[in-house]
Structure formats: structure tokens, C-alpha cells
Design brief:
This protein is α/β, with parallel strands linked by helices. The mean pLDDT is 93. Helix 6 links the parallel strand 7 and strand 8. The protein is globular. The protein contains nine helices and ten strands.
């Protein structure tokens, strides 16, 4: 059966030691949509996310990106996948010894032959996209949590990916910055047409950014649907999570 989504996971199984984390997860993310993966702590959300650009490989099952299976690729080929499907890590993963501009330039210098002037221009472009103009010379230690999140997002955008994977993008942020990051995720999806997958346990954030929501529970996808559909769901487990989430 041919894959129909931009990212498609089929019957994924993944364990750590004797602890199963994913137990037959199947999920399709359509091109250009924003999918939120909801679930409690330890439910396997981040593990599932890392399968979507080959940072983890399943014990069994398949992952497709733009129609191509990636779950059996060698590391060299996975680098190409990660250029197209970039990840914004929960801890931002910025290099402390590099400025904001140097952090964003890093993937451009590693993966392209752009001349220095074009690299500088791209750095300025992505900083403008995330409302961080003028922060080129700052180091991560000089930045707030919200600024670090936006700088990490700018770095993820540097290579013009078709997909963005966000791991808990609002964790540790105050309500005002949480709202700003959520709005930024939606704005980038609309401006750039990127396919976005957002892992979160924050139900309010999920309802702001999602076009569809997948609820992960017990190693399986228990629900997939729109914001309106999950609110109307008759599944008691889903409703308990939404109320107590």
C-alpha cells in the first residue's frame, strides 16, 4: 500500500529493555498540516516523534517521509532526511560557545556550499521569521527561555525544511511566552506551508496550534481527529485526560 501522507508511521513497535513504549503505532500526517501528539508523561510521544526523521528506528514497522521509507536507511542517507524534516528539541540543543548567528549558520556551513554573504542573509531571514532580529551576537547564556526556543526554531528553519518536529516547545515557559510560541508555530505553518508535528502534554497549547490531534496512550494511538472531534469524543479515557491533563 502506497503512503498517502507526508509523514506516515505504520505499526511501529519500540521497547527499551523489557519495557514496551510503542506497541503498533500507526499515524499519518498530511502535507502542510499541523498535527499535535497528546499524551501523559512517559506515554512515548517523544519516542514516536524521533522515529519521524530517523533519530530512532523501530524494532518493527515502517516510517515513510514523502513516500520514501526511512526506517532502514543508513546514517548518511538519514542526514538528507533530517534536512527535510528538522527537529526543535525540548532543551533547544544550542551550542553554548556559539552566538545565535553562529548556531543558525552551523547547519548551513555543514550542509551547503553557500558563500559567507548568503549564509549571513539566510541567518537574518530566519531570525526575522521568529522575531529575533538584532540578537545575532548574543550567546545562549544571555537569552531568556523563550528566546532560546525561538533561536532553536530559527536554526531548524535554516535549511528550508518541508517538515518541523517540535518536542514540548512550550515546556518551562510562562503563559505569555507560551502563547507567543504557539502563535509562531501556526504562523510559520501558514507562511511557509511546512508540515508540523507538535508533541505536548499541554492541552491548551494543543487546541491553539492543532489542525488534528492524536492521543497516545498505552503505546497505541487511541484517538485521531480535529480539535472539535476530540472535545466531542465519547471515549472516557480521552475525556479524563482532557479534564485532568
Amino acid at each position: 500500500m502506497e503512503p498517502t501522507g507526508f509523514i506516515e508511521c505504520r505499526n511501529l513497535h519500540k521497547s527499551f529493555g523489557d519495557k514496551p513504549v510503542l506497541e503498533g503505532v500507526s499515524l499519518r500526517i498530511d502535507r502542510g498540516e499541523t498535527m499535535v501528539i497528546l499524551g501523559g508523561s512517559g506515554s512515548g510521544k517523544t519516542v514516536l516523534l524521533k522515529h519521524m526523521n530517523g533519530l530512532m528506528n523501530p524494532e518493527s514497522g515502517e516510517v515513510f517521509v514523502d513516500g520514501h521509507e526511512i526506517s532502514r536507511l543508513e546514517e548518511e542517507d538519514l542526514r538528507e532526511v533530517r534536512k527535510r524534516v528538522a527537529m526543535v528539541f525540548q532543551g533547544c540543543a544550542l551550542f553554548d560557545s556559539l552566538t545565535v548567528a553562529e548556531n543558525i549558520a552551523y547547519p548551513l556551513l555543514e550542509h551547503t556550499t553557500l558563500p559567507p554573504a548568503a549564509v549571513r542573509e539566510r541567518v537574518e531571514e530566519v531570525l526575522a521569521l521568529v522575531d529575533l532580529e538584532g540578537s545575532e551576537d548574543l550567546y545562549p547564556a544571555e537569552m531568556s527561555g523563550g528566546m532560546k526556543k525561538r533561536a532553536a526554531l530559527a536554526r531548524a528553519l535554516a535549511l528550508k525544511p518541508s517538515g518541523l518536529l517540535y518536542d514540548e516547545p512550550t515546556t518551562g515557559l510562562d503563559p505569555i511566552m507560551t502563547h507567543r510560541i504557539n502563535r509562531l508555530i501556526r504562523d510559520l505553518q501558514m507562511k511557509l506551508g511546512v508540515t508540523s508535528v507538535v508533541v505536548t502534554h499541554d492541552i491548551q497549547s494543543a487546541f491553539v496550534v492543532a489542525e488534528r490531534i492524536a492521543f497516545l496512550r498505552g503505546g497505541r494511538i487511541r484517538f485521531v481527529g480535529t480539535r472539535e472531534e476530540i472535545q466531542r469524543s465519547s471515549d472516557v479515557i480521552v475525556q479524563e485526560f482532557l479534564i485532568g491533563g
